[in-house]
Design a protein that fits this description.
single chain; 249 residues; alpha/beta; TIM Barrel; 8-stranded parallel beta barrel; 13 helices; globular
Length: 249
């Protein structure tokens, strides 16, 4: 499944993504059934814990939809747990330097390349591979670019061997640059930051990811983004409920 994402990017496709924040396999299964080509479990700001994440993997495996994990922190034990449970990829928050990106890669690679402990209890079931080299090649690795420090070193971060893409956290990046939230994607300084990030991705043949509203997709794709999270499950329920009540009244 992860290789399918890489193939879609290689073919020039924009891959849409939905953020999972609700601690329920059912809501995740509904989004997969709706046709999303990828999902991401949000362990940073979402309400999902480790056991529920495992149940979500169980539910979505039947849909053949790759499920990535956005970690709470760039922490090796959490990375290894997510990968051993069958995560198709890791989105690591608050990567501030090339050293942070190298630490992410090291936690995903077995010795001698890295420090990951070998124990593919579920990976061999979910993905059908158990040999260390094959297991290590599975996950998509995406450091998040969401601080002024990361932006200042984005070319060096993009050059770290082993990563597959960069993922922009627009709210944190905007705040770190002294700009407002909600994010003004049209602000010249913010747009310049996005352009610099996608240029670094093109230079190193990486996917460029970002969280943004659906109406911004066409513009962001023009800038070079090809992995775009367009919605989260909580907002879908809230906005749908508001719209239904408004229509009824």
């Amino acid at each position: 499944m992860t290789h399918n994402l890489r193939q879609q990017w290689a073919n020039g496709s924009v891959v849409y993504n939905a953020w999972l924040t609700i601690p329920s396999p059912w809501s995740a299964e509904l989004l997969a059934t709706a046709g999303f080509p990828s999902l991401t479990i949000d362990l940073q700001h979402g309400l999902i814990d480790d056991p529920t994440a495992l149940h979500i993997f169980h539910a979505i495996d039947q849909q053949r939809c790759p499920v990535l994990v956005r970690l709470a922190w760039n922490e090796p034990a959490a990375i290894m747990r997510a990968l051993d449970r069958g995560a198709a990829g890791i989105i690591a928050p608050l990567i501030n330097s090339p050293a942070d990106a190298r630490a992410l890669v090291a936690a995903c690679r077995f010795p001698p390349e890295g420090m990951r402990s070998y124990g593919p209890v579920r990976v061999s079931v979910a993905h059908g591979v158990a040999e260390p080299a094959a297991v290590a090649r599975l996950p998509i690795l995406m450091p998040m670019i969401e601080t002024a420090s990361a932006l200042a070193q984005v070319e060096e971060i993009a050059a770290v061997p082993g990563i597959d893409g960069l993922y922009v956290g627009p709210a944190d990046l905007s705040l770190s640059l002294g700009l407002p939230v909600p994010v003004d994607f049209a602000a010249p300084s913010f747009r310049a930051a996005l352009t610099r990030i996608t240029a670094a991705c093109r230079q190193h043949n990486l996917a460029a990811g970002i969280y943004a509203r659906p109406e911004l997709v066409a513009d962001l794709a023009t800038l070079g983004f090809n992995f775009i999270t367009i919605v989260n499950d909580s907002d879908l329920i809230l906005n749908g409920a508001i719209a239904a009540l408004r229509a009824a009244r």
